[in-house]
Amino acid sequence: MYVPDAATAETGKSGLRSVDRKVWEDMLDIVKCKILSAVNGLEMDAYLLSESSLFISPHRLILKTCGTTLNLLGLPRILAIAREYAGLSKVYQCFYSRKAFMFPEKQLGPHRDWGMEVEFLDRIFDHGSAYTVGKVNGDHWLLYMTNPEDLSSGSGTEMSSLASSFMEIYEERWAIVGQGGLYTLPLLPPTQDYTIEILMTHLSPRSCAAFFTPDTVDPCGNGEFTPGMHAQQLTAKLGISNIFPPRLTQLDAYSFVPCGYSSNALIKWGDVSDGVERAGEGYYTIHVTPEEGWSYASFECNVPLAIRRHGGAIDNPEDIPDLRTLIQRVVRIFEPGKLTMTLFVASAEDGNASDVDGCETAGEDAQRAFKAALTRIPKRSSPGNLYSGESPAIEKGSSLVKAYKRTDKINYEFGGYDLAFASFEMI
Fold first, then answer.
1. What is the secondary structure of 45-77 as a DSSP string?
2. Which residues carry this modification: Pyruvic acid (Ser) (predicted)?
3. Among residues 66, 94, 208, 301, which one is catalytic?
4. What is the DSSP string of 70-104?
5. Which residue in 165, 172, 265, 272 is a FRET match for 403, CA 20 to 30 A apart?
6. How many CA atoms lie within 13 A of 239 on its CB side?
7. What is the pLDDT of residues 111-166, one digit of tens each?
8. Using an 8 Å Cβ cutoff, are 305 and 324 in contact?
9. 418 or 12: which carries more pLDDT confidence?
10. Residue 123 phi/psi, 5° resolution?
11. Measuring CA to CA, which residue among 152, 155, 174 is closest to residue 163?
12. Handedness of CA 308, 312, 314, 317 (dihedral sign)
C-alpha cells in the first residue's frame, strides 16, 4: 500500500499524520494520559503528554509512557486507527521496551508482570520474541520485537476482548515510577533506525532541586508563569536547549506542579557518508521526576550520531554532537549516581561485516563510546551556568571531574539490529 509524502498529500500531512488529534486523544484516554501541547515538524508531530510523549510520522508511531499508565492497552486502538483512518492494514514491525520498574507492585493491567506483557503482545502478533538484557536481580532492560517478515496482526476480536478485560478491572492511579516505550511501524520501514536511551537514577541533590516548580507557576495558566514558560526558562538555564544546536531544534517543554519536567524536541539533521548526503528530522525527549528516594531522568533520541568525530575534532556546540559528546552533555545536566544506556541500531546491510578481520559491530563501537564518555565527566561550573560547550578533556585529579565505573556490558545481534547495553555507577 502506498503512502504519499507531504508534498502530494492534500493537507500537507499523510498516513498517520493525517489523523485528527481528537482521535489520538481518545486513544490516550485508554492509556490514561492527556496531551499537554504539541509541536509540528516537516516529517513528524511531537505531542507532550501528562505521562511522557507521543511521536507520529506518516508510517510510524512512538508512544512513551510512565507511571501507572496502561501503554499496551492502547495498542489495539492504535492498530485500528491505522487501518480505519490511514489505510495502513499491516504492521511492518513492532517494538516494546522498558527498564525494570522501580515499583512493580504499583503497576496495573498487563504491566504488573513481564510475562503478562509478553502474553498480551503474543495474542496480537505472531512469532514475536521477548528478551531480558542485564542482571535479573539488578538493572535490566526488557524488549519485545516482531519480525518484519511476519505481516500478520492477529485477531481483532481477540485483541479487543483482551484489552477490555484488563480495562474493566483496573482504575487510574497516578505516580511517576519508571519508563516504558511502545513503537509501532505500520507497513513501511523507516529510512534510518537508531535509538539511544540514557536512563538515570539517584540524581544529584543540585540537579533534583532545579526540577521543583516554584509557587509562581500556575498549572491552570493564571499565575505569573505558565508551566510552559517556566519550563522554557529551565531548559535554557540547565543547558538542555544546547544538547543539540538551537538553530536545528524545535523544542517544547512543561514543568509539573509541584515537581517534574518533560520536553520534546524535533531536530533537523544531516550527514555525508561515503559521498552520499543524508538528511532527516529526528527527536529527543526528556522526562524527569526529582523526588528524593526515587529520582529519575530519561533521555531518548533517534538522531543517528557518529561514534566519534573524525580527526579528533573538538566539541563544537554549533555541530550535531557525536555519541560520546551527547552522553557527556546529558550526564553533566543530571549528575546521576547510576545510569543505564542502550543503543539500538539497524545492522549494516552486510550482516557478516563483524566476521571480517578489523570490522566491528555498531554495538562494539558504542560500548567504547559509552566508556570513553563516562571515564571523566566535567562537573557543571556553577548553578547560574550549568552547561558548558567546552571540550571535556580535562586533567585527571581535577576537582571538576566526575567519573563512573561500568558495572555491566552486554551486546546483542538479532533480527537485523545491534543492541549495546551498559550500566554505570558513579565512583
1. EEEEETTEEEEEETTEEEEEEETT--GGGGHHH
2. 52
3. 66
4. -GGGGHHHHHHHHHHHH---SEEEEEEEEEPPS-G
5. 265
6. 23
7. 778 888 999 999 999 889 999 888 888 778 888 999 875 544 444 434 444 443 33
8. no
9. 418
10. -75, -20
11. 155
12. negative
- Give yes or no: 111 in active site: no
User: What is the spatial distance between Cα 298 and Cα 341, in angstroms, rounded to a whole number?
Assistant: 10
CA distance 103 to 204: 21
Residue in this structure with the C-alpha cell 558504542, named with its chain if needed? 366
d(CA 124, CA 164): 14
Active site residue 18: no
If you compute the radius of gyration of the chain from its CA atoms, what whole number of angstroms results?
A: 21
Task: Verify whether residue 359 is a known catalytic residue.
Answer: no
249's grid cell: 531544534
- How does residue 174 score in pLDDT terms, banded at 50, 70 and 90? very low
What's the burial of 380, exposed, middle or buried (CB within 10 Å: 0-12/13-18/19+)? buried
Residue type at position 61: L
How big is the chain, counted in residues? 427
Helices (H) and strands (E) counted in the chain, each on its own, are: 8, 18
The one catalytic residue in 14, 97, 241, 262 is 262
Is 52 one of the annotated active-site residues of the chain? yes
* Catalytic, out of 208, 241, 287, 298: 287
Which one from 18, 52, 53, 423 is the annotated catalytic residue? 52
Report d(CA 405, CA 116) in Å as an integer.
34
Query: Pick from 196, 192, 262: which is nearest to 47 by CA?
Result: 262
Closest CA relative to residue 261, chosen from 29, 33, 36: 36
- Which domains are assigned to the chain? 15-186 (3.60.90.10), 194-426 (3.60.90)
**What is the C-alpha separation between 302 and 127, in angstroms, rounded?**
26
